[in-house]
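Case study.
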Amino acid sequence: MVTTERSLSAAEVLPQPSPARARQIAAAVPDPELPMLTLADLGVLRGVEVDEDGVVTASLTPTYSGCPAMAEMRAEVAARLTRAGFREVRIRTVLDPPWTSDWITPRGRSALAEHGIAPPAAAPAQGPGPSPGPVPVELFPTRRAVRCPRCGSADTEETSRFAATACRALHRCRSCLEPFELFKEI
Amino acid sequence: MSNDHVYLSLAEASSEGDAHWAFGTGFQDPLHGVDTAVPAGVDRAGLAAYCLALGDDALVLAQRLAQWCTHAPELEEEVALANIGLDLLGQARLLYSRAGQADGSGRTEDDFAYFRDAGDFRNVRLAELPNGDFAFSTARLLVLSAWRLALFQRLAGSADPVLAAVAGKGVKELAYHREYAARWTVRLGDGTEYSHGRMRRAVDEVWPYVEELFAPDEGGFGVDPVDVRGAVEETLAQVLTAATLATPAALPRGGADGGRRGAHTEHLGPLLAELQSVARAHPGAAW
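After joint prediction, the assembly is written out as follows.
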């Protein structure tokens, strides 16, 4: 054990509770289900604030109402900030405005494609309001210009709107014949 | 802690910090009772009752959808139905938490989901009916998602900011649910003679329970369901026409508002027994 001549003061041991540092730590937390994305990439992290007492408040917006990963995200953000020396960390969930796949960053979109998941196109404009618009009733899945993340072909088809997590859909490439996932537009 | 937006505290992280998300989650911190969260002029009891009814619809239908696991025609459908159920479960959790805040009782989502008997549930009876065949479940999902979507679109402008936020979020999810059900309705209805017949019988079985969706909201808190009727009937007619199916002229079965008064079919009890058995065997358990 190294003996020092004087004990370190709290200010020397603990990092300065700067907003920039808190934001940096929270932003680097990986998504539990899509670990190639950080919470910042996903657009789930909506803000990090540090008050005058050094209390950190990180705001998260769930992707879906029933997203089971939210609890893990909260716990991981809190744990990393605590480990980094922030003594009091609060996590709050922001429901409004609702999360949209448009918030996924360009870096996040590249990371998705690199890992075989087609990034989402622009989300449909279906904001709240009393005009529900026409119901899609096509018998066959919509053919959209989703590019295969493996071979780049645009000749792809949807096999299911729902996949292993709420935020993904199943597609198949008709050129290389490989299945792949699409990050759903909401 | 104080929040600058009332709905932020709705889904406050557990003070225990654990990654719980099933029974025993500690989802709601009783310290954050949020008395100030209900805007002045909003009837608290009416708001609580309204959130409870919408939460019960979602929880009961989510349980029915989960029962399709290992029984669906294809793996993709099983995944789809489970995903839809998960969305609804998420909506139920938020609505239950809101109900407990609004009525001042401080009851949590778990109190509402696991420790009430069938007579205390306020879901529409259509949600609790057994799954039947795939066509019946499809027709039920079509009706309930079309109705819930039309309702949530209007609730997004609610006087209660929490309910508005929950509804605004749910709109995006419900649009997917409605589209899923509409596609299967068309595929089966406009399919073979045999699939058409099965889908037609399913619609005939579901329709006597549709009237209950438009029962007046006694508390007068939310959107008057009567206002929603036009939009829903238009949507359903559009889908049924595409599916070459006629809209049945069905008389309401068992009264027009039974479920909302707690008068349920005999099917809700067994559903709740399965749903609640673990929580009741181990009250207070957490994991």
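Observations recorded in class. The two ends of chain B are 26 Å apart (CA to CA). Chain B touches chain A through 68 residues (CB under 8 Å). We will return to this complex in the next lecture.
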